[in-house]
Amino acid sequence: MQSFKLLALGGDHIGPEVTMAALDVFQHLTTREQIPVEIDEDLLGGASWDVHQTFCTDDVAAKAKAADAILVGAVGGPEWDAIEIDGPITETDGLTRLRIELDVYNALRPARAWKPLLNKTPYRDNVVTGSNILVVRENSGGIYYGEPRGRDTAAQGQQRAYEISEYHTFEIERIARCALTAARDRKKQLVSLDKSNVMETGKLWRETVGRIARDEFPDVTVRHLLMDFALYEIARKPTEFDVVLADNLFGDLVSDLVGITAGSLGMLPSACLPGPVKSGDRIRGGIYEPTHGSAPDISGLGIANPIAAILSVAMIFEYALGRSGLAKEIETTVEQVLADGLFTVDLGGKATTSEVTQGIIKKL
Ligand code: NAI
Ligand code: MG
After folding, report:
1. 35, 163, 242, 347: which could form a disulfide with 187 (CB 3.0–4.6 Å)?
2. What is the number of H-type helices and E-type strands within the chain?
3. What positions carry a catalytic annotation?
4. What is residue 245's predicted lDDT score, i.e. its pLDDT?
């Protein structure tokens, strides 16, 4: 069996702390399961800037393309905010460079309610118990990348800033297939979000998702909701949603909203994949990372919640190794450790990153 190649890019501040914790879990389970792995570690973000004067070197980009999976901590921090680079976003943000070069357009952002954390959410128990939502976000197009974009001086010296929201049919078709594939694997229900009442991209989105669903996934029930009403409904009755599909901007918004059900930012993993996956499949070249940022305010204290990074490793087992049983085992173990009261500071506890990680490893 060929070794599974994992590239670990800790990034900045708590990024390396939670990445090391997640790697401990990864190594423990791959050793236990006799899965041969090769782990390479390198720099990304500010850590890369300080050594190489670029946020992502060509060497790291090449290693990422050769890896079976890439685990990222988080990048950024105030030290690097003032650096001005006159170039495309791929030069100003190392993680964005990797996302674009690996064409990981399928961003999966799961959030579930954890029994021991129900009282850490703003919800009454009976509203959120059992909530388990997968947001599928289009991750490489739309208004964040549309050209032209910029700023100029318009009439009467007014500053004008603008960007373009743009989608091609193929971009919507491919992300629709990703979401429908995920839905087929779960409850066969998909909710697709758009603003087709006011946006041209929204109209094309709704038509295209509807067509792919009818032609290729007749077994999946699809509901199209307008984005504003959908946010209201998801916040009100999270348990009535399963797979939620949205474009880049709306997916960014809805995934944070859905994150509330998990009790803390420190509980939210993500996977950015270069295509659709169903259980048992293995997909190469995905980027797996916690949803949270580099948390400079708690950097170096050893108190960051490692669970989002550890759940990102669970997603590596599920999607890159095709071992959903191991992914499930990590989730169940996390829930047990939380039930034992082992919480980090974001959840109101006193446990350190390492205590939580060791607690999880001991039970695995
Ligand atoms: P953040 O997610 O880093 O922090 C927000 C708050 O949540 C902070 O109080 C932080 O201490 C807490 N927090 C986050 N993760 C935690 C964890 N695992 N355990 C315990 N507490 C945790 O967001 P913020 O402060 O807006 O951004 C900080 C830096 O991170 C910025 O430079 C930003 O650009 C960058 N960032 C990077 C991302 C990435 O690499 N994907 C995503 C979001 C932000
Ligand atoms: Mg966001």
Report:
1. 242
2. 14, 12
3. 144, 195, 228, 252, 256
4. 98
